[in-house]
Amino acid sequence: LQLHHSGNYSCEGLVRSWPSRPAAVTVTVHGVPLSGVSLLAQPPKEQVVLGDHLVMSYMVAAGTGPLSFSWHREGSGGPLGTGPHLELKHTGDNVSGKYRCRVSNRNSMAESDPLNVTVL
């Protein structure tokens, strides 16, 4: 089911040559709240060599979209990004820390556990 499947439904038929028209049934499809947000890093193990790239992406165990994102590092100001991935190019010492992704839909918001990134 999708959210746009909400509406009135009915079924018509013939029973022994008599038309049958039952009353319409209203179906409302609700969004599923978000849960189980987790982060993945490439390269794995959240360790990156000074100057290399690090890409973080999210996974959601349950929830319906459309989804919006915000990426955060503990101790930094505003969001670091708003897309489904966060790419850190040419990493330096200043990117070490704990990262989180907040995912939201029309009905709910969920946040990942922190991902501890270490620059070697």
Automatic annotation (TrEMBL):
InterPro entries from the UniProt entry: Ig-like_dom, Ig-like_dom_sf, Ig-like_fold, Ig_sub
Q: What is the lineage of its organism?
A: Eukaryota, Metazoa, Chordata, Craniata, Vertebrata
Task: Give the protein name, as stated in the record.
Answer: FCRL2 protein
Organism of origin: Emberiza fucata
Q: Which PROSITE patterns match?
A: IG_LIKE
What region holds the Ig-like domain? Answer: 22-118
